[in-house]
């Protein structure tokens, strides 16, 4: 097997070498360190740390809230992207720019801002409180924070895909007798689906790793509103480096498994399409 | 009638993109809408499909008014230039889409799909994805898909636009075959005249939102009514000629061509003659010609293109300045006329020519355009005024669109009020609006002008053209001028009928009948679609009110008595009208003579 194929584009060896080096230095080396650190503890300790009820509760919150937030973002991000692409209205450019705000804002700032708004005496919180809905310091708060963080990922991935859906396709479907719902379900959605899946994946990945904004709004009650990244920080503060590494390792594994399965699902969907053509 | 359009208008940001189009397409007819890009043909097609609403007018399919029916309910078959196939579905799924939406049973669907694929010669391609097909095949699938639900009509929007020549021809044949087999009423939109000729039972030519002319391909080619159609359908030489009692005259050469239609009752006037390149004959001398001699000329260019030889011959003699077309692309009118000529190989063998050779030019057939607007002459009291007027944006735009020329003529008499002109007035006389425009107008009419255009210093392209005539004897020529002008501007036409103030209820039906008569005459004789409005009051005041109410108006005013201009319509000139004004003048007595 040889990588040296004649190509019109020179510098393949150089660029591949650089890519490999960069990936190693920035991504793989820290990961390796993480695995090595984990390996310093015994198997029994490892299992004990991972199956600690407090840790298990944190997994459930971290991944559950992230999935929920990514799903919410997929729905609302799609609608926002649709509005921005399809309609011409005053202030469109402004809203378009606002979408990126969560990217730029320090996450702690957005966490504090959300807490101020959703706390029981906050702007929105005070109206929700009479209905017995508490957002700040509950799992709902975590979902709200993660939704804010992930929104731009969905909008930015879906926007170009929606722009690409030709009006002619919808017009054609309409003359063929399809109603609006059918057109959306059978023409628009299938075309935008891959981009939407990408946006979902990105939003989910970001949410799992999010720390700054969540710790302000979550209240951080053990077993209730404690996310895994926070648990890691707590372990670090207690100088339990091996335990922190173990939790980090398990998060890494689970995230990787989920991202990989989403990617595989997408690839399978594509292949099924092509296979149908043969 | 399968498709009936009645005065359909679609505006975009105030200006009409489809302008008063009326059209009837018969059962099983293949109708081709031909026009340059931006002529409104695609918008019209989308309006028929229901994808675009209309601002005015009525659309009916098979006798049912569908003007306010959604595209989904109309269910026409529509084929797009870019195929618009659903790329995530197989060919079979694409074709079955309309049937699935209608909840047809799977077995029936399969049956219909097979039938359609056979029809477009794509048997066995059911499971392919559109991306695995060639462009031509994709468009076949699109045609099959559009026909699946047995639509009332089939609409094709530039279906061959994205294909190369060879495939184009093949697909063209398929579509014609399918259309004949199913006997389905079809409307195809294209900018390609060859395509139109190859497919159409009837062709409609559109430009600037108007349906200019509609007819069988051969008739449109042989007897176009407008410059646009004459030059858009095939090549044409447009020449200015003079219509006389005897016939047609180019410069000083009378041409005894038979069967030349007489315009405007044979009145001596400037006319626009159409000479098709293939109708021109070349010979060594005048005596060798077998057809009517029009001029001598020098061969400037000769290109062999297979079956035909394309030539350019520069006309000499008096016919030289008869030319009005723009041959050179840089916009300069050549001082002498170039004639496009095509010859068959047989003709080439009989009389081979070399570049630079002097030849006699004859013509087999001359067609005179039924337009009273032949050319423009800008009149001014001095050189500067003339020059300014000739540069007027609206005049330049009109002349460009009509493919005609603007001549400048200085007439000191214009200001001085001397009775006679230095040369006879021909074509449309143009003067600038101003305080003494009324006197200048009077002067021009006395010197034989039939049409005078009064242009204010600043005037945009008109959006609403009002038409009015003082006496019924001016009706015919006013409508002819209006029809000719409105084919070259993107404006709505409104005929304003005015009854005197205090005319009783008894007069009303008479007024309404006048309007309807005017409208049907405009439609039938001049191919002009216009709206009508009935007003009561003094003519000049009512017109002025109408003009000041509309955005970018223009007035076409027909009179048969010059004195009327001062008496009845003086108010229109008093302020130095801020809108373009076209005065049509025909002396009243000869049309009265006809009616008696």
TrEMBL record, chain A:
Q: What PROSITE patterns has UniProt attached to this entry?
A: ABC_TM1
Quaternary structure, per UniProt, is: The complex is composed of two ATP-binding proteins (CysA), two transmembrane proteins (CysT and CysW) and a solute-binding protein (CysP).
Keyword Phosphoprotein present in the record's keywords: the answer is no
Q: Which family does it belong to?
A: Belongs to the binding-protein-dependent transport system permease family. CysTW subfamily.
- Keyword Transmembrane helix assigned: yes
* Regions that span the bilayer: 12-36, 63-85, 97-119, 131-155, 195-221, 241-265
- Domain called ABC transmembrane type-1: residue spans: 59-260
The cross-references to InterPro entries, in alphabetical order and at most eight, read:
CysT_permease (IPR011865), MetI-like (IPR000515), MetI-like_sf (IPR035906), Sulph_transpt2 (IPR005667)
The record gives the membrane topology as: Multi-pass membrane protein
What does the record give as the function of this protein? Part of the ABC transporter complex CysAWTP (TC 3.A.1.6.1) involved in sulfate/thiosulfate import. Probably responsible for the translocation of the substrate across the membrane. Part of the ABC transporter complex (TC 3.A.1.6.1) involved in sulfate/thiosulfate import.
Q: CDD domains of this UniProt entry?
A: TM_PBP2
Localization in the cell: Cell membrane
Name of protein: Sulfate transport system permease protein CysT
Entry keywords, A to Z: Membrane, Sulfate transport, Transmembrane, Transmembrane helix, Transport
From TrEMBL, chain B:
Q: Which UniProt keywords apply?
A: ATP-binding, Nucleotide-binding, Transport
Fetch the SUPFAM superfamilies from UniProt.
Answer: MOP-like, P-loop containing nucleoside triphosphate hydrolases
Lineage of the species this protein comes from: Bacteria, Pseudomonadati, Pseudomonadota, Gammaproteobacteria, Steroidobacterales
Question: Can you name this protein?
Answer: ABC transporter ATP-binding protein
User: Which top-level group of life is the source organism from?
Assistant: Bacteria
Q: Which InterPro entries match?
A: AAA+_ATPase, ABC_SmlMolc_Importer, ABC_transporter-like_ATP-bd, ABC_transporter-like_CS, Mo/tungstate-bd_C_term_dom, P-loop_NTPase, Rossmann-like_a/b/a_fold
MF terms (GO), sorted A to Z: ATP binding
What species is given as this protein's source?
Steroidobacter gossypii
- On whether Transcription is a keyword of this UniProt record, the answer is no
Q: Which SMART domains match?
A: AAA
| Statement: the UniProt record of this protein carries the keyword Nucleotide-binding | yes
Q: Which residues form the ABC transporter domain?
A: 3-233
